Hints:
With 589 residues, the chain is α/β, with parallel strands linked by helices. It is built from 21 helices and 21 strands.
Amino acid sequence: MAEEVRVGPSAGPRELREVEIAEAYVEALLAHGVSYLFLNPGTDTFPIQEAVAKRRALGQPTVETVLCPFELPALAAAHGYYAVSGRPQAVLVHVDVGTQNLGAMVHNAQRGRAAVLLSAGRAPYTTDPVVRGTRDTYIHWLQEQLDQHGIVRNYVKWDYELRRPDQIGEVIARAFQIAESDPPGPVYFTLPREVLMERVDRVLIPDPSRFPPARLGAGDPDLLRRAAEMLVRAERPLVLAAASGRTRAGWDGLIALAELLALPVVEWRTRANFPADHPLHLGYNYGLEHGLSEADVILVLDHDVPYIPTRTPLSEQATIIQIDLDPVKERIPLWSFPVDLPIRADTGAALPLLAAAARDLLTESDRRRIAERRDRLAALSNAQRLAWRQQAATYASTRPIALQWLGYCLEEFRRENPDILFIDEAITSQVPLFCQVRTTSFGSWFQSGGSGLGWGIGAAIGAKLAAPERLVVGLIGDGSFLFGVPEASLWIAQRAQAPVLLVVLNNACYNATKLPLTAAYPEGYSVRTGQFVGIDLTPTPRFDLLAQAVDAYGERVEEPDQILPALRRAAARVREGQSAVLDVILARP
Ligand SMILES: Cc1ncc(C[n+]2csc(CCOP(=O)(O)OP(=O)(O)O)c2C)c(N)n1
Ligand SMILES: [Mg+2]
């Protein structure tokens, strides 16, 4: 949803007098609109902790610190916050080891294009007792690495070490400018302890409005006109959208364009991109889509993997248009999807221009052809949705609980709670749940955009902090739940007053790694003996009890008729301020 560009009234630079750099760091974060500092401390970060304490004691504005007893959920939360609000937050961790514990969330922030300011302490450099912050404990020799930044350099857009105290303001301005410029992403900077503790007479915090992020806007109008011509002429057009719904303009723009030209939309829900109950919604990527192989013109919107060429080859004749912040995917080493018309643009800005160009081109006969297509597609779309729902209803009393029936109940629950916001780390349950749970409004579904497991719980917490008025529901595989350091994460939710409802999709295994094994070795030893190595998560942990250990509500759900009542009980707790974990025991795949 990163749509708002900060170009507020120019307040001019601020000058801080007689200040310690740690405090200037806090001031600079505030100047950039940061509300939350997701923090795990060390012997390097305490000057910042002291600066926050001082500002609190003096009644001065300061960032909210969210203590994260493991670093991974800290970054997942900052990512979730950005995804929901478009406002980058800050993470502060301890030297090399804290950086390493950010783990796979760094990959997710990169792939999910999440603007986040990652900051880490650095071991002190000096051994001179008169220097404030100098080395004074044995770990200071162990913490220093030849290249601390190298841990994350592969994933961040920019990294920098704060070399001089008086740089703090401009370095943070640059960090945010780069993180938020299109395409957005994480940045990393380090704070050596002596620099952090240095007192200076004067430091400048630049006015952020003089360092706004560069945004791509609507793209080349000539290319958009060509795209409009192709789409108007198309006989069997198709839209593939994955993250165009990251802005409201992208959500609205796709509805308007699709309705104008009767374009069927096939979705991958990195975000909710198109109303799932719309008569032009034609299913989901990677198997449940209508018309991909036959399409003559395909419009790809913000998609990293628009189709799997080895599974669903396109027609040789298909013309492909792609609108994306980075249509050539510069950071994916081999990305060889043919694209006839790549348009580098912000989809939300481009779609209205594309629609306007198309409207100008439409003839009477085009309009008739399009009207026929609209009726045909509506029949297909409605029939498909009805079939999915009817099929799910047949599992209403099946035990163990069928995934489809869980989806059916979640859809009922969604209808009862229009303020719901889903965080999706459902892995192999994703597509079956897409078919049941209809996202009908902007900003109602979020995935990480990457493949690093453990994101869901932290992201749900960040989403809740960004949108306290929403009911945040995480749909999380049992394996993914364990990757998310659940005790630490649920403790954060409790401490930060960010209650979330987590549904554990407990199939007692890593199904995602079972499926390729079974497909590649259908008659192999694993299948024949039923003994899969490294896949079963049995005996399944008591996720409900684990929740209770950190003051969350926990319930195990084994009866199909108890899903909806349990969801309601959990939601009531969440609305009262307590997180809840529903451990739904599913049929083993
Ligand atoms: C950090 C990390 N480690 C390992 C993997 C590999 N991996 C992908 S899916 C998966 C299993 C996920 O299990 P679960 O959340 O239970 O979902 P299911 O496969 O059962 O649907 C694993 C281990 C990964 N993607 N990320
Ligand atoms: Mg599982």
